[in-house]
Structure formats: C-alpha cells, structure tokens
Write a structure and sequence with these properties.
Oligomer: single chain
CATH topology of the largest domain: PH-domain like
Distance between the termini: 18 Å
Number of strands: 9
Number of helices: 5
Strand order of the largest sheet: 5-8-9-7-6
CATH class of the largest domain: Mainly Beta
Radius of gyration: 21 Å
Order of helices and strands: EHHHEEEEHEEEEH
CATH architecture of the largest domain: Roll
Structural class: alpha+beta
C-alpha cells in the first residue's frame, strides 16, 4: 500500500473574514491619515510609523497562508508537523502506539478549538473539521491529529498499524 499524505490549511470563511476585516481597518486608517490628512483616533500614530504598522496585517495574511498541518502515514509510523511551528516532521513509530484509529471529536468542547491544542497527556493538532486520527501511546498519552480524509487515513492506519502489531 502506498503511504497516506495530507496537507490541511486554515480555510474557514470566518477566519478569513476576520483577517480581511483587520486588513481593511489598516487600509482605512492609512487612507484617512495619509491621503485625506485627517488623524485617526485620539492618539494617532505619526505618518512615518503608519507604514510600519501596516506590516501587521500583511504578516497576519502571510502567517495564515503558510500555516498548515501535514500528515503522513507509512510503514515507519505516523509523521506530522504543524508548519511553521514545526519545521521538521515528528515521527511516531508504530512500536510507541498502543491504539490507532479514526474518530469523530468535538474540537471546541474537547480541545478548546483548532490549532496546537492541549497539554500534558491529551493533545491535538488540527485545523478544521471534527474527524481525526486518535493515537494512544503505550505510556497512556494521547494525540489527536485532525484529518479531512478520514476514510483514507483509517485505511492507512489499518494497513500499516496491523503490519507492525499483529493480532489487532
């Protein structure tokens, strides 16, 4: 069987609406103060500083464009990275895993939302949706990796995890 790979991005409409609204506010402030010559607010930034502040929405847009969750399942184990926070993949070898399956979950209730979530023994890495690869380690820790390809991920888990742990 060929390895499973998936790349997910933050594509939620409401998130991009917030990013666009913040960017729109910055453009409005620039227009009002630099073009119309009317200071914005009670304590306006200097005209020289406004272009510097304009970097904020641009960096926010770039951040959400490059932000992604990459997952790979193959004969070695489960690889994942939450780029740009993790440059290199983290490999979880099959011999470290007690249970591996795909499940539906409640992101807000169980983990407080999407992103890099949870601390201690129960962690999640997700960007959208409510399906994930649930990994339970032999030491009792848990990691949920979100997926938009639940059936394909489940098939890969069944194929590769069974190869490494006969009898499951």
């Amino acid at each position: 069987m060929k390895p499973f790979t998936e790349t997910q991005r933050f594509n939620q409409w409401w998130l991009w609406l917030i990013v666009i609204a913040v960017t729109g506010l910055y453009v409005y402030v620039l227009y009002q103060q630099l073009y119309l010559g009317e200071a914005f607010g009670n304590n306006p930034a200097s005209n020289e500083m406004l272009p510097v502040f304009s970097a904020v929405p641009l960096l926010l847009i770039v951040f959400f464009v490059v932000l992604r969750l990459d997952t790979k399942i193959d004969a070695d184990g489960v690889y994942y990275r939450f780029f740009p926070f993790q440059i290199n993949y983290k490999l979880i070898k099959w011999n470290e895993i007690d249970k591996a399956y795909v499940r539906q979950y409640k992101p807000i209730i169980e983990y407080g939302g999407w992103g890099i979530r949870g601390w201690g023994k129960d962690k999640a890495r997700n960007v959208s949706g409510n399906m994930g690869l649930q990994l339970t380690f032999k030491n009792g820790d848990k990691l949920l990796i979100g997926t938009q390809k639940a059936e394909e991920a489940g098939n890969a888990l069944n194929e590769f995890f069974k190869q490494k742990t006969p009898g499951l």
